[in-house]
Amino acid sequence: MRHFDFVKSSYSSGDGECVEVARNVPGAVAVRDSKFPDGPVVVVTSRAWASFQDDARCAEVN
């Protein structure tokens, strides 16, 4: 099993609504809810994560 080193998103709010992301495994990005560190983890390819970020940035502007 892969070992992910999660860090909290800089966009997470201070009221517990936090997302943590791990990018330390080549070719993969893992995402989890910081309130449930032993809960489910979504793992996507680095390319899919980059596409998601691009789409999120476009939605933010529009």
Describe this structure in words.
The chain has 62 residues and is an alpha+beta fold. The chain has a 4-stranded antiparallel β-sheet. A hairpin with a 5-residue loop joins β2 and β3. It is flat and about 35 Å long. The protein has 1 helix and 4 strands, in the order ββββα. It starts with 6 loop residues before the first strand and ends with a helix. The mean pLDDT is 87. The longest helix has 16 residues, at 46-61.
- The helix-strand sequence is EEEEH
Strand content: 25-35%
Identify the overall geometry: flat
The overall strand count is 4
List keywords for this structure.
single chain, 26% helix, alpha+beta, 4 strands, 4-stranded antiparallel β-sheet, 1 helix, 62 residues
Short description:
26% of the residues lie in helices and 26% in strands.
Q: What is the secondary structure topology, with strand pairs?
A:
Elements: E1 7-8, E2 19-22, E3 28-33, E4 42-45, H1 46-61
Antiparallel strand pairs: 1-2, 2-3, 3-4
